[in-house]
Task: inverse folding
């Protein structure tokens, strides 16, 4: 079956760096997405990786290793507003998104 | 970036009535639209995928006669919850992918969501 694994919850300190990991097993691969979701709101797109390597976008970076079925989202200079759930999703061979359950990130002052 | 809107953002209805939710792509052509349902503290659950001009493809366990999906144009898809019951209360989210200026087909753009409460 298809499976996306990511930690349920993580805690970090304001100003610090945090890495959220995601491992996946899917039927086919057409890219991996990271989304940020604040409570009660729809997810907002953060990044898309389809080739191996690191994609940097401001304070956020996303890494992909297709051979390992692994990705991580790196958040730098954490701010209180970064407290949210972070969803990892893989697009399978049918171009449908397989979602992880999300990682709740708690930022402490 | 591309924008997807949903209307209404929030709706409260009586049990047994039908509710229609609209999903619009505002600045790109949405060849494919997706309807999701989110349960509290869980990830999004894909309900169905619709391609413009075709019948929607429903995920296993989703009643197509209860959740009617129409995707008649490249900018509009509708989800109608028929004979709504309290257990249908949820957060419904649409997303769209397609083509347009600065739009990558592989990227999904999410609507803001519609919170349905059935009394």
Result:
């Amino acid at each position: 079956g298809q499976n996306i694994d990511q930690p349920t919850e993580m805690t970090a300190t304001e100003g610090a760096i945090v890495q959220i990991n995601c491992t996946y097993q899917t039927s086919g691969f057409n890219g991996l997405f990271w989304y940020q979701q604040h409570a009660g709101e729809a997810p907002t797109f953060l990044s898309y990786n389809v080739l191996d390597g690191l994609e940097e976008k401001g304070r956020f970076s996303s890494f992909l290793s297709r051979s390992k079925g692994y990705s991580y989202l790196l958040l730098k200079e954490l701010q209180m507003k970064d407290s949210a759930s972070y969803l990892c999703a893989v697009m399978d061979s049918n171009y449908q998104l397989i979602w992880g359950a999300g990682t709740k990130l708690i930022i402490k002052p | 970036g591309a924008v997807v809107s949903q209307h209404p953002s929030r709706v409260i209805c009586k049990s047994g009535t039908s509710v229609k939710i609209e999903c619009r792509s505002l600045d790109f052509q949405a060849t494919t639209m997706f309807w999701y349902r989110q349960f509290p503290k869980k990830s999004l659950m894909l309900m169905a995928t619709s391609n413009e001009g075709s019948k929607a493809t429903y995920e296993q366990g989703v009643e197509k006669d209860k959740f009617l999906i129409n995707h008649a144009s490249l900018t509009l898809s509708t989800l109608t919850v028929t004979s709504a019951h309290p257990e249908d209360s949820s957060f419904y989210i649409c997303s769209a992918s397609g083509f347009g200026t600065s739009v990558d087909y592989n990227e999904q753009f999410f609507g803001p969501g519609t919170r349905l409460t059935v009394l």
Remarks:
- Chain B has a mean pLDDT of 86.
- The two ends of chain B are 37 Å apart (CA to CA).
- The longest strand of chain B covers residues 29-38.
